[in-house]
Amino acid sequence: MARGQYAGLSFEQAVAKYAKNVLTACTVRLQNSADAEDCTQNTFIKLYRKSPEFRDEEHLKAWLLRVAINECRHCLRSNKRLVSLDLVKEHPVPDSDDSQDVSWALMRLPAKYREVLYLHYIERYKVDEIAQILSTKSGTVKSLLKRGRDKLREIYGGDEK
After folding, report:
1. Which among 83, 107, 138 is the end of a domain?
2. If 156 and its partner were Cys, which of 36, 99, 105, 107 is the partner (CB 3.0–4.6 Å)?
3. What pTM does this model have?
């Protein structure tokens, strides 16, 4: 049984509400579903064990994403292995009917760009919030967003400026 409330949610409710967000963030970072599931599980174990206080649900979500990203970093350091982007079969080049889906191109970006693009466009965090989640400066996040968009445009074959 859960210890308490997390921004007004029980542990089970928090898991049900945010597990998909955490798993997606981990999958984007690691490009390996098994490792992503492990990091997601570790994130929620930390939530349960630490039982921190949260101002609101947005604070809870940001905390979970930050812990998940740190878990991914730890996983990458521990495993010391690289995943070839050519082997990512879950995100093939889209066929003509699916030309608007850019997830396949996003997965071909280096992790530092995937992370900020995911947090900005999928999770809808602002630059300052991303900087706080990633423990970096706002200027760094802006630079990563710009470079990431440029690289995404190159991969996706988008129009030049």
Report:
1. 83
2. 105
3. 0.66
